Amino acid sequence: MSNGIHLVFKAGERFATTNPATGACLADYAIAGVAEVNSAIARARQAQEWWGRTPLIRRAALLRRVARLLNEEKEALAQVITAESGKPLQEALLNDVLVSADAALFCAEDAASVLRPEDVPHHNLALRLKSGRLEWEPLGVIGIIAPWNYPLSIPAADTFAALVTGNTVVLKPSELTPQTALELERVVNRALDDEGLTTLPRPLQVILGRGPTGGQLVEGDIDKLIFTGSVATGRHVAMAAAERLLPVTLELGGKDAMIVLEDADLDVATSAAVWGAMLNAGQTCISVERCYVQRKLYSKFVSQCVQKIQALKVGPGADPQTDLGPLITPRQLHIVEQQVDEARALGATVQTGGRRLRELGENFYAPTLVTDVDHSMSLMCEETFGPVLPVTPFDTDEDAIRMANDSDFGLASSVWGSTRRAERIARQLHAGTVLVNDLISGFAVAAAPHGGVKHSGLGRTHGRLGLRELVRPRYVDVDLMPSMKKLWWYPYAQNFQPMAAFVDMLHQPGLMARLRASLKTIPLLLRRRR
Ligand code: TXE
Question: Is the dihedral of CA 416, 419, 421, 425 positive or negative?
Answer without folding.
Answer: positive
